[in-house]
Design brief:
The chain is an alpha+beta fold. The protein is 34% helix and 11% strand. The chain contains 2 helices and 2 strands. The protein has helices at 5-27, 45-53; strands at residues 39-43, 62-66. A two-stranded parallel ribbon has the order 1-2. Helix 1 (5-27) crosses helix 2 (45-53).
């Protein structure tokens, strides 16, 4: 996640702060944008990226998380689910 999507998320945040206002002002008849009031939102993996943006030195002013991964120390993320104990292992030659 850190190589591509994370760098993209940081680039988009920077672009919104530096360029979005100019684009909207030119293309949409003078829409004013306050670059100090940027929010990040996402769904699922996108929500995880939005939450990660909150850890930056200059984070977005608001974060909206729809079903993103969090609380990764909770046993749900690393304890085998007994409901799947009957499922055979995936053949290594298919990986």
């Amino acid at each position: 996640m850190y190589d591509g999507p994370w760098e993209d998320a940081k680039d988009v945040l920077a672009w919104c702060r530096e360029e979005l206002g100019k684009v909207l002002k030119e293309e949409d008849g003078g829409v004013e944008v306050d670059p100090g009031r940027v929010a990040a939102m996402g769904h699922s993996a996108g929500a995880a990226l939005a939450l990660l943006l909150g850890g930056l030195p200059n984070p977005p002013q608001a974060l909206l998380d729809f079903y993103g991964m969090k609380y990764l120390t909770h046993p749900h993320w690393h304890t085998p689910n007994p409901s799947f104990s009957h499922v055979p292992d995936y053949p290594p030659d298919h990986i």
